[in-house]
Amino acid sequence: MKKAIITCSNSTIELYEFVEAFYLVSQKANTALELLRQGLPTWVSPEKYDEMKISLWVYNDTRANALCHYENGENYIALSVGLLTAFWNEVEDFVSQDNLTSVFKISEENRPIFMDNVYFYMLNFTIAHEYGHIAHGHLREQKGEKSIDETFRMSDVANDKDRKVKNWTTQLKEYDADSFAVTIQAVLFLQQWQEDIRVNLANFDKMFIANYLCFRTFAEKTGRKFADYFDKSIDEYDHPHPGIRMYYSYIHYSYWIGRFRDFGEDTMIILGSGSDAVISYEKNVLGKEKIKECYYSVAFTEKGAQHVMNLHNGWQEKIEHFNEYAYMEIEKMDIIDSMPVSLDKNGNFVNKN
After folding, report:
1. Among 211, 223, 287, 351, which one has the highest count of C-beta atoms within 10 angstroms of its own C-beta?
2. Can you tell me the distance from the alpha carbon of 22 to that of 24, in angstroms, rounded to the nearest whole number?
3. What is the rounded distance in angstroms from the CA atom of residue 310 to the CA atom of residue 127?
């Protein structure tokens, strides 16, 4: 088995090609990782892929984490065994919910396939997210050590104003990496497109649920506390709220699917189905009534909508700068000047557009 060693935060990390067999998740994870390695070169042009020198690894750490790292002219993407295990546990927990049939009708025969699909989409999104950090120059733009990971660390900036600026810049890069990952997921979805809308509905529902489970895992396993989101300014956090990440992911899915399949009735039904599946899962399966407990619902409040707009518009202002470091040109999008608001912070419906 191939191995490598990198240095992050003055510590060496041993990287492995596959998860070692004594881990329970090894077979599931290694099967998915092998497929993903075959796909990595297709995400950009052959010339850009050769230039980036990207490789995909795992490392032995029980904490849930994913990282990208640049060292000696090479870019590394690494997932911890803790993350690979946490993702599979999320999938198992999802399908074992008593009321799941109110959202998904999964036969016993199809359950293993469903689980493998969702797990693959979770890994695909996470790896594409780290890939986006690399491709769009987030690592090369950094001074000093060039690493980005998902773990929560207290900022080393003592001044409160500077700390918030640093947090917000990190959020913008997370937004961009998520956007890149959604693009990869959307292309995969479009490649699977069938004339039978039922197939498309099933595929997109699984993909969107995978996004939700990813964002929930990273929020809950990396030490970030979002329960007091409505009581804090958005730049108190170094990552966007999971519901905010869901909402702008939905917007980017809409952009790419509509771009290639038009914004016809079928497209809107497919997009709406994925969104409804997550909302129904949180409320009807998990029984979450308070909006603070419902990750996705937060995005439909006035604060959530403004947060999404600030991220999207703020990143557009950064693109010219990051294009100086990116391996590929970052596409600039239109500014968003308004978004619908349907809930107040208590979860009540409001008549506001």
Report:
1. 211
2. 6
3. 25
